[in-house]
Every structure is written in structure tokens, then in C-alpha cells.
Amino acid sequence: MSLxxxxxxxxxxxxxxxxxxxxxxxxxxxxxxxPVPVYGYExxxxxxxxxxxxxxxxxxHNGFLYESTGQEGKSxxxxxxxxxxxxxxxxxxxxxxxxxxxxLFNGQLYNLTWRNGICRVYDVNDLKLIREFTYQGxxxxxxNDGTNLYMTDSTHVIRVLNPETFRSSRxxxxxxEDGRPMMNLNELEFVKGELWANIWHSERADILGxxxxxxxxxxxxxxxxxxxxxxGISPEDTKRDAENTLNxxxxxxxxxxxxxxxxxxxxxxxxxxxxxxx
Length: 278
Description:
It is a single chain. The model is unreliable at 1-31 (pLDDT under 50). The chain is mostly beta strands. The protein has helices at 2-24, 235-238; strands at 38-48, 55-61, 64-69, 76-80, 87-92, 99-105, 108-113, 118-123, 129-134, 142-144, 149-152, 157-161, 168-173, 185-191, 194-199, 213-217, 224-229, 246-252, 257-262, 267-274. It has a single domain, classed as 6 Propeller (Neuraminidase), CATH 2.120.10.30. 10% of the residues lie in helices and 44% in strands.
């Protein structure tokens, strides 16, 4: 019996050693993800932009820009010749409204308001009002992926909405590399499957500490997959007033062209993304 117990114990010890050895052969993955790439830009061409347009939303459709502007008493949704800056069609919002983001879905323009909790839907052909939705909280930027709407509200959270009901189906939290919430997500645009977001006052240390940055976001999980550094793109505009911030991204998918502008900027810029930087 003593011999049997000894052999059993030996087998048990042998098994323990084998297990430990196998675990030791699989070192833990301690590698940290690399930094998010930062891309630069080149200006391809600049065009006139209405300096009285406090740009909140921007999109490209059938050779024209569609733009929403803000401020009480001055808010509009407009159709613009992008190469001349001429407004060819316009609708004024009620004087108590502060217009915000704009997106085009199935021939209809969805326009948010800042604190009024109203999204108005217009026919893209004649800017006639079709219907209205109400929502809780603030409205900032809005875009769509062809199926759902994506809306920002000043926080780091993006709401995914049903375009027929304006009800939220899920929320996407966007975090910085340091784990902090990426606040002040603003105007949105879908570009080749990514959700690009202006960051209001990105130059502020408590927001990002880097002026005129655009976040490139994976819409499936909210991960920031890249930054676009547009610092210095329009110094004559951004130095006039603290609120003349970069805001407005329009992508022409048919010609693969990208346009950006800002609040009360005198110019619209067609740009080419470069990099990433080393």
C-alpha cells in the first residue's frame, strides 16, 4: 500500500510539472497597441465661402453643397454652388432655433437644432418641410451610413437612430487613447466606411489640446482609428474669433473629393489627406 501511494503521488507531481511547463511555454501578451496614426493634409483648391454662414453641417450631393448654419435668427438650410459660394436655394429656421447638423438620407435632409429638441426633415429637391421629430438632449452633428442615422450631442456618445422613427437603437462611446472620453464630438461625415468627426474647440487643453483635429472613428465600436491634423489650414479665419472653429466635412464619393470649412470662414477647402506622419 505504501508503494502504491508513493507511485500515485509521483504521478500527481509529474502531472503538475507538465501543466506548469505548458503554461510557461505560453508567455502572456504584454504588447501595447501602437499610437493612433495622425494624418496631414494638402490643399488641392480653395473656393469662396459665405463669411456670414456659421457652418454646422455640410454635405455634397449632385454637384452642390448643402449646408446648415446656426445662431438664433440666422439659422438656415441652404443649397450652395461649391465653386462660387453662391446660395441658390435657402430655407430659414424659426428665429428661436439654433440650427445644427445636416445629413441626406433617401432624398431627405435631416437638420438638427441645438437645444430645441427638434429635427426637421426637408425634401432635397425643393427644401419643402416634410416632417419633424423630437428628441431629448442637445443636437450637434448628424450623418448616415445608408441605413441608420448617427447623431452627436456634445458628449463622447454617438446615438444610432432609426431614420423612420428617430428612436435610438444603440449608443457608441468614443474614447481617447488615454482612456478619457472624447468630448465635444460635433459635425459628422461618413468617409469610406469610417465616421469622421469634427471636435468643437479641439485646441482646448481639456478637450484635446490640438487645434483643428478631426477624429476618424470605427462606427462599429467607437474606436478612434486615426486623427487628421488640419492645424493652420485657414489662419486668417481662425484668428478672427474664438468661435470661428473648423466645422464642416463634405465627401464627394463619386469623385473621391473631400471638402472642409469652418464657422464664418471665408473659404471652403478641397483637401487631400496625406501621411500618416512618422
